[in-house]
Amino acid sequence: MVSLPYTSSDLSFTRSLAKVELHAHLNGSVRRSTLASLALAQGLSPDAIIASSQILPGDTRSTSAQFSVFHLAHKCIRGAEVVRRVTREILEDWSEDGVVYAEMRTTPRAHEEVGLSVEGYVQAVLDGFRDHQEGSASSSSSCHARLILSIDRRDGAEVAERTVNLALRHRSQGVIGIDLSGDPTLGQWSNWEPALRRARSEGLKVTIHAGEVPDADEETSQILSFHPDRLGHVCYLSPSNAKKLEETQPKIPLELCLTSNLLVCPQIVPEYSAHHFAKHYAQEHPVALCTDDTAVFGSSLSQEYAIAMQAFGFSREETKRIARDALQASFLDRNDPLWAELERVVGQEMTM
Ligand code: 6MZ
């Protein structure tokens, strides 16, 4: 288990804050006890699966080898009922942690051996959202969710187009955008750009993982020229790309994940206080603090907020503002009735 640097009083405070999660991958956020029981049901060793499905401090594997942790979750999470269950549980856990609104993302995949199509996969996730809403109807807290469909960098243009079509077909049920993610050493921007342009022209929001590895300056420059609605990570930014990011108008909000970046990009984030969140925040660039993969990195959103308080010396008032800033960066339609409700509560302390 990672030892996270925060104080317990900061953590009680950040847990009580109504927060917004904008960057979290479904299969990286599965409750560990559930992953263990699913592993057992598949005839796999639960202990081995749990131990190998985390990225821990001191992990010196290559980026591609680190990304193999996700294959283990993919191996255990099979079939519509399981996808639906883990989705509901993730929302329950986030709600427990004070997350009142989340934009969950996932890569649509068919589970052919159990007859689940990509369409069925997306529907199972949306059913999990509905189960959580219905299950929490009588309780004071629930995590409202919207869905972003991810294009995996392993996949080419055809899958990217199919993902955009899926998003468009499920829009009325809460799919709001498209993400580009996956092993950052794979694929090339030109594969996905046409589909991403079409997504945008059809009114979907687009968020892109960028700068997770060194030597991707040209691709990052192309992504900046595309002007996505949000960017994830941006750990490695050459001076010219940093300038381009700052000069791009309107500014592109950044989804920043402290523990994930510390563990995956230790060369550029050797300690929490060196994380680029502080620099962008000081420059008043729009930022949202996020978790990425709560199960893989062993850190919840309230822990990430408490770490930020400790690492950057944020006061409670500043920390409340960070939660409100995340809401401003969300893809939620400002005319959605939920928007007014969230504006009222996000950044406030809740009684839990
Ligand atoms: C890039 C990431 C990621 O889609 O199966 N994923 N992509 N950078 C990261 N930072 C560490 N963390 C997760 O969730 C798991 C998938 O999300 C992407 C990878 O493609 C991973 O296989 P879903 O729900």
From TrEMBL:
InterPro entries: A_deaminase_dom, Ado/ade_deaminase, Metal_Hydrolase. Its cofactor is Zn(2+). GO terms for biological process: adenosine catabolic process; inosine biosynthetic process; nucleotide metabolic process. GO terms for molecular function: adenosine deaminase activity; metal ion binding. It comes from the Eukaryota. Keywords: Hydrolase, Metal-binding, Nucleotide metabolism, Zinc. It holds the Pfam family A_deaminase. It catalyses: N(6)-methyl-AMP + H2O + H(+) = IMP + methylamine. Belongs to the metallo-dependent hydrolases superfamily. Adenosine and AMP deaminases family. PANTHER family: ADENOSINE DEAMINASE, ADENOSINE DEAMINASE-LIKE PROTEIN. This is Putative adenosine deaminase.
